[in-house]
């Protein structure tokens, strides 16, 4: 088993753009931690090899207290074996990172911190319903560095309504000035069931123009790569030696175990996902079951995932591996469909790897969907 993901489904409030599974009632937290430890014990035999990456995501894992972390780590270290250099990441929100809290985190096994900053611009942060200011976010990063964390990632969002290229450039410059090791950056998506989506439908906000989105993406790539970051996945940039090992497992179709409500797992052939309800999750673990659904991926679905995840990364799709895993038919199908993009210099083959070119990255969704087997 390559990695373990733990979903902590609590946030203080909901951000306007968020459709992740989470709740704001923290009174369930104790029962939840009991249930989580129960699930970890019950599923310990699903991991066949030492754990290489452990990722606490959410939700907002920094809503947990020291006693919660102690119980979770004790359970995991008792029932699973870990590689000595395992990557152990905690997702945090800047507003939780008081001096005492960061000091407490530095005493725990975390060796990577991923901070949900999104923007350093206070108007944007208010619009997104984030609970911190730009200055507080910068202070939070510095506190982590002072407490000895030297593998720090931040999330930044672009393509917000009303965002100008100048504001985006300023956000990027502030991020670079923090001397962090990793940046994940996503274009705003109007997910159904979010407040942002309702504002859009009501005509109260206007999405940025497609041309501006493209220019912002180009600015992101050019600015970060000129400061030593490697653009190793469509949304991820890391300094050499600081790529997210956990996310690389997802992109390389490795197995992972997902614990907690709404967490997904993959065992190499089947995907499963736990019930997306804290109450039902707690009850199901209490009664000795883990309520979850499972689907077995067909060969076509596995091929589609192989192409999708491979093309998103700088390593691309290994054509020899494609042939070995899926056979001549899928290999030829992929290359036949890729040819017109190769001719247009949107895809390229390099040492047996099929990759997006810089131009191709900007229309990657369309290219990938043309290589899908439907
Ligand atoms: S903090 Fe993260 S998970 Fe929580 S509501 Fe905001 S975006 Fe969603």
Account of the protein in words:
This protein has 374 residues and is an alpha/beta fold. It has 2 domains: 249 residues, tm_1862 like domain (pyruvate-formate lyase- activating enzyme, Alpha-Beta Horseshoe), CATH 3.80.30.20; 73 residues, Arc Repressor Mutant, subunit A. The protein is built from 15 helices and 15 strands. It has a 9-stranded mixed sheet, sandwiched between helices. Strands 10-11-12 form a 3-stranded antiparallel sheet, with no helix packed on it. Strand 1, helix 1 and strand 2 form a beta-alpha-beta unit. The chain is globular and about 60 Å long. Iron/sulfur cluster (SF4) binds next to loops.
Which overall shape is indicated by the principal axes computed on the Cα atoms?
globular
The CATH class of the largest domain, by name, is: Alpha Beta
Alpha carbon gap, first and last residue: 30 Å
Number of domains: 2
Helical amount among residues, as a percent range? Answer: 40-55%
Strand order of the largest sheet: 7-8-6-5-4-3-2-1-9
Q: How big a fraction of the residues is strand?
A: 15-25%
CATH 4th-level superfamily of the largest domain: tm_1862 like domain
Secondary-structure element order, as H and E? Answer: EHEHEHEHHEHEHHEEHEEEHEHEHHEEHH
Radius of gyration: 21 Å
CATH topology of the largest domain: pyruvate-formate lyase- activating enzyme
Bound small molecules, deduplicated: iron/sulfur cluster
Number of helices: 15
